[in-house]
Amino acid sequence: MAPIVSVQNLTKTYGNGFQALKGVDLEIHEGEILALLGPNGAGKTTLISIICGIVNASAGQVLVGGHDVVRDFRQARSLIGLVPQELTTDMFETVWNTVSFSRGVYGKKPNPQVIEQVLRDLSLWSKKDNMLRELSGGMKRRVLIAKALAHEPKILFLDEPTAGVDVNLRREMWQVVEKLRANGVTIILTTHYIEEAEEIADRVGVINGGKLLLIEEKNALMRKLGRKQLRLELAEPLVTLPASLAAYDLALSDDGSALVHEYQGDEGQGSIASLLAMLAAEDIHFKDLSTRQSSLEDIFVALVAQQAGEQA
Question: Which residues form the ABC transporter domain (predicted)?
Answer without folding.
Answer: 5-234
